[in-house]
Automatic annotation (TrEMBL):
One of its GO terms (biological process) is enterobactin biosynthetic process. It comes from Vibrio aerogenes CECT 7868. This is Chondramide synthase cmdD. The keyword Phosphoprotein applies. Keywords: Phosphopantetheine, Phosphoprotein. GO terms for cellular component: cytosol; enterobactin synthetase complex.
Length: 854
């Protein structure tokens, strides 16, 4: 419908419903252009028409309850010609009409009344259904089920819609016939798509007054109807992620680590979707592996082993492992190849070990944000060197990635001793010409091949026309390509490079000093002393050293010795400063006290620790404080990065450890309650676990509308995506900011923040005196939080409660029940934001005080 309205903007679209037996059109609906959701109503009755939604006893059902559709009115036919039995079945007296002779028609269609007086059409109630593209006769499957050993009576129906539709078998038997045996016998007789996914054993089948099976009275199957194994909670990151995906795809509330994908209702189409979802999580999986290891724990073991092999095949590059000093990590620029690594290492102080960070596997999907690239590199760095201080160096765009790596290391409360940028310009300083995808691929292939030929001492003119395949074939013929570079590898490498160059990065201030090595012979347009970094950092934080050569000569040829000497001297200078206690990279600047007292309370009485959601601050709990007893101490934790020059935490565990250190002197011997809202719920969970590990007893853990930390989720969010997410949260306060993705997409990151700042202050959602710096800090903190992954290995033992907003996705509650089976779940009348505001916040206060009823 949306596609039609886009293609025909001046044409009104109407949805009409009706069978031939009632002169075709009996309901009509004008399709709105701003339709929400993915369902279309069939509308309301047209003139002189009556529509009824009746249950199995022929009685009207309430709004929202499904029933069979009946049609009354002047247009209803008298019956079928020469078919009295069918006429008697389908045409009957209308008991709801004033006219005693009025008739109504039984359609066989299923629907329900909506609140606006229209009807939601839900399909046919016939015996013939389509399952995963196959049309099957339910009667045929019912007969096969009834023929199974020990089964007396049986019926099979289809439940669900679309890809979620599944066959459910109901049966009676004198003896205890298990679902496993029934399914095994049916699997030997019927094609896979005709074998029911769930089985319900009944004492007797429900019947209608005329003796037929009353399909509408058959009970909804629960998890016990599936072939299940003794429940044991999934263990480890891979099992938890797989279990969450299975729950989502299979529609089950809980998955044991011993459950079988296909016995839980999985089939070939869902298997394809499973492989796709697993691959989105960064794991390797194919259908063959799934079919040979369909049990969750065994599949996770295979995936983990494959991932470990992948990591082993993609480690840091040991350019030099000898030396007594802290190692230096070289961050690759957009090419990702670090072909200049050995030569650059050779001219750096021999007492410094040097490692290169290898680019992502070219056969895997490319990374499209600097933040995700940096997260991957941080993991590689810390596998090699678990604790700081760290030394980083990047040439060209590699220096920008190194800057984001430094930000994330600081967010992990690590220190950065040396951050070297070899002719790295601030993002956005140079405007590249806009190129199509293919044109960009050609430019990249020409650049790579010319560089390789230059390194091998060859000169071959590449054709001006043609494509990247031509460049590859010429380079292959000259022998300048590495032997391992197949055409597929070369093509994927170009895709990775293109996506890197298309990635947007907004550099924000860090409490570090950088060593900037600027090429002397750059064109005048690039002759800025600080290469644009003075727009990000104070000039006192930037040490600039000019080195001979132009941009590409810094990592090749005669310029390398000068570059190596400059890098070695800068590292030595930073090392000396560190030994004198002047190490850059500490969280310094304006005083920052994370613990804020919202209510002093009475000494010895309970204390409640409140942790805000992503990008939010301690003032979000003001209404909650007013709902709590005055005797209770209310403490809130102000996330780092919202004021001063601190960097937002880059992991949930690091934030919790930082808070615990600040909290410990204030806890004394008191009853402790911990509350976290949204992302703060994750931090609360980690904080409570760390408290338990230190022997600090916690009375309760409450999470307010937090996502379960096992939900499969997109790991990469662009700057624009995080900003639109933040805008939606602001608008939950009841005011529109008037900002759309289409409006913001063409803007530079700085311009978007300026536009957001203006919209927030003009709408009244933020005070008129709110500064752009303050809005930027909120956005920065929010973006860092939503990009943070969290998957706890072990859960806290403290009693846990969860408050869900009224508009959460349907999957939120079962995900939590699977992840933390003992959690008590409550439902707020408010949305994600207003559940912290009066009057909705009263329920949250009652939960914390243990006074709320489930």
């Amino acid at each position: 419908m949306r596609k039609t309205t886009q293609q025909l903007p001046d044409v009104a679209l109407h949805n009409l419903y009706g069978p031939t037996e009632a002169a075709v059109d009996v309901t009509a609906w004008a399709c709105p252009r701003d339709l929400e959701g993915d369902r279309m109503s069939i509308g309301a009755p047209v003139a002189n028409t009556r529509m009824y939604v009746l249950d199995a006893q022929g009685q009207p059902v309430p709004v929202g309850v499904a029933g069979e559709l009946y049609i009354g009115g002047v247009q209803v036919a008298r019956g079928y010609l020469n078919r009295p039995e069918l006429t008697a079945e389908k045409f009957m007296a209308d008991p709801f009409a004033d006219d005693a002779d009025a008739m109504m028609y039984r359609t066989g269609d299923v629907g329900c009344w909506l609140a606006d007086g229209t009807i939601d059409y839900q399909g046919r109630n016939d015996d013939q259904v389509k399952i995963r593209g196959f049309r099957v006769e339910l009667g045929e499957i019912s007969s096969a089920l009834q023929d199974c050993r020990g089964v007396q009576e049986a019926v099979v129906i289809a439940r669900g819609t679309g890809a979620a539709k599944q066959l459910v078998g109901y049966y009676t038997s004198d003896e205890a016939v298990g679902a496993e045996a029934v399914k095994a016998e049916l699997s030997a007789r019927l094609p896979e798509y005709m074998v029911p996914s769930a089985y319900v054993a009944l004492e007797s089948l429900p019947l209608t007054p005329n003796g037929k099976v009353n399909r509408k009275a058959l009970p909804e199957p629960d998890d016990s109807a599936l072939i299940r194994h003794a429940y044991e909670a999934p263990q480890g990151e891979t099992e938890l992620k797989l279990a969450a995906i299975w729950q989502q795809l299979l529609g089950v509330a809980q998955v044991s680590r011993h459950d079988h994908f296909f016995e839980l209702g999985g089939h070939s189409l869902l298997a394809i979707r499973l492989v796709s979802e697993v691959q989105k999580q960064g794991f390797r999986l194919d259908l063959a592996t799934l079919f040979t290891a369909p049990v969750l724990s065994s599949l996770a073991s295979v995936i983990t082993a494959s991932s470990a092999a992948s990591l082993a095949a993609d480690p840091v590059i040991p350019f030099r492992t000898t030396g007594s000093q802290t190692p230096l990590f070289i961050v690759p620029e957009f090419s990702g190849e670090l072909l200049y690594g050995p030569a650059l290492t050779a001219v750096i102080d021999a007492d410094i070990p040097v490692y290169g960070l290898s680019a992502p596997d070219r056969m895997q999907p490319s990374l499209k944000t600097y933040q995700h690239m940096a997260t991957r590199y941080v993991q590689m760095i810390r596998r090699t060197q678990p604790e700081g201080p760290y030394r980083l160096l990047g040439w060209s765009t590699g220096g920008v990635v190194a800057y984001e790596i430094a930000a994330q290391l600081l967010g992990l409360d690590q220190t950065v001793e040396f951050l070297g940028m070899l002719d790295s310009w601030k993002p956005g300083l140079i405007q590249r010409p806009a190129l199509s995808g293919q044109a960009m691929m050609r430019e990249l292939s020409r650049g790579m091949v010319n560089y390789l030929m230059q390194q091998s001492g060859q000169t071959v003119d590449l054709p001006q026309s043609g494509d990247w395949q031509d460049d590859y074939r010429i380079a292959k013929a000259t022998g300048c390509l590495p032997a391992s570079w197949s055409e597929t590898y070369f093509h994927n490498m170009l895709i990775h490079q293109k996506d890197f160059l298309n990635a947007e990065y907004h550099a924000l201030p860090l409490p570090v000093e950088i060593d900037l090595f600027a090429a002397q012979d750059n064109p005048s347009a690039l002759g800025e002393l600080y290469l644009g970094w003075d727009q990000v950092l104070d000039t006192a934080q930037i040490h600039v050293e000019s080195v001979p050569g132009e941009h590409f000569e810094l990592v090749t040829g005669a310029c390398l010795p000068h570059v190596g000497q400059a890098i070695s001297a800068a590292v030595a200078r930073r090392r000396k400063a560190a030994s004198s206690g002047l190490l850059s990279g500490q969280q310094t600047g304006q005083p920052y006290e994370p613990v804020v007292t919202l209510q002093a309370g009475v000494p010895g009485q309970p204390v409640c620790i409140c942790i805000p959601g992503a990008g939010d601050n301690v003032l979000s709990f003001v209404d909650l404080v007013q709902s709590m007893p005055k005797t209770q101490t209310m403490l809130a934790l102000q996330p780092r990065g919202l004021w001063g020059n601190g960097v937002p935490h880059a992991s949930v565990e690091a934030a919790a450890a930082f808070y615990l250190q600040a909290l410990t002197p204030r806890l004394q011997q008191r009853e402790i309650h911990v509350l976290g809202h949204s992302f703060g719920g994750w931090v609360a969970m980690a904080l409570v676990k760390q408290m338990e590990d230190k022997g600090i007893q916690v009375a309760s853990l409450t999470m307010a509308d937090s996502r379960a930390p096992v939900t499969p989720r997109q790991e990469e969010y662009t700057n624009l995506e995080t900003m639109m997410w933040l805008i939606r949260l602001f608008e939950m306060r009841g005011k529109s900011l008037g900002l759309t993705e289409a409006m913001l997409a063409p803007m530079a990151p700085e311009a978007r923040l300026q536009r957001l700042h203006l919209a927030l202050t003009e709408s009244g959602l933020m005070h008129a005196r709110t500064t752009l710096k303050e809005v930027t800090a909120i956005y920065r903190s929010f973006s860092a939080n939503v990009r943070t992954r969290y998957l706890p290995e072990t859960l806290p033992k403290t009693p846990a409660r969860l408050l869900l907003a009224h508009d959460v996705p349907d999957t939120r509650q079962p995900e939590w029940q699977s992840f933390m089976p003992s959690v008590q779940i409550f439902h707020s009348p408010g949305n994600h934001v207003t559940l912290l505001k009066s009057p909705d916040v009263t329920l949250l206060a009652e939960i914390i005080l243990g006074q709320a009823a489930i």
